[in-house]
């Protein structure tokens, strides 16, 4: 870790690391430093060993809330207490046991974004998951339970929060330029319970609580999404997509839509795909990160063609680039609704396209295990134990993709015939 006398200039000059965190230690006061996270957040800290020789580290305050000199004075007081046999970290823990839900949620987000809280597979929680957690916290959890003391919560309190979210008590317009309303509903309500229970569980694991006060709270059962496009609807989608293309629909949006239909990829995977990840000759896409971690996923020629036909924007690595900036195109859901309306099809989402791909594979006779691997559900080890991943998966994906492409082309041909007849 770097060292320097902490001054305003030195702290201002600290560059956020690309991963994890960096600490700049003060050369004037041993144990006093400032920590900077990849997000740019800078926090004054004190590190010491207590009477038992155990290394402790506590936060003093964020940079900006206190100046460097003020933080150094606070650090001196903490270190003086250590010399006197006290352990400031224990005092902090005891104080945290009286944390409100709002304070605990803030603690969780800060620690999790710093990589200090582990999720599934004992890995740091993904940014995308934390973004969703933060949205539920701000929109639903804080307004309903934010001022409550965590250790005094009951199962009934958490289940009442769930009921209130389901009934729309926290409904409000979305922020950040997003359209529509955050309306709640049973699915969101259940996920809010899951988020809050996980936060309390992490706090107990880290010693902030002696017990989990709401363990056993029941979540509303979710409705499994089973909607798929049948053969006739896939043909109608092909017809509507061809019509939309001729009448000014965004070609990048249609490209994403076609790719999702031909691959079964998740919406986020399709939209955020980089060109460099796609190996058309090898018939696969190397995703560095998905819901299931890094994965190699097979892709058929028809989908490769849809990807490679997209415009290349210098400086933008995405297969489906946004027209501005370096980001990906992100509005495929809106395009899907426009196309579905043209086709006269109701009740579909991007997940419907994923389910359709798996269902068509089933219609073609592929096993459930193979379909799970095609969709990125099965782990690589499980897949390799039962099928030849290189050949069987490529064959299964290609046949499924080709069948969907055939049905889309059939619909597009009918659209052309109607135009000629007109």
From TrEMBL:
InterPro entries for the chain: DNA_brk_join_enz, Integrase-like_cat_sf, Integrase_catalytic, Integrase_DNA-bd_sf, Integrase_DNA_bind_dom, Integrase_recombinase_N, Phage_Integrase
Keywords from the named record: DNA integration, DNA recombination, DNA-binding
Domain Tyr recombinase intervals: 224-399
One function term, GO molecular function aspect: DNA binding
GO BP annotations, alphabetical order: DNA integration; DNA recombination
DNA-binding in keyword set: yes
Region described as Disordered: spans on this chain: 164-183
PANTHER family per UniProt: PROPHAGE INTEGRASE, PROPHAGE INTEGRASE INTS-RELATED
Similarity remark: Belongs to the 'phage' integrase family.
Protein name: Integrase
Organism listed in the record: Sphingobium fuliginis (strain ATCC 27551)
Organism taxonomic ancestry: Bacteria, Pseudomonadati, Pseudomonadota, Alphaproteobacteria, Sphingomonadales
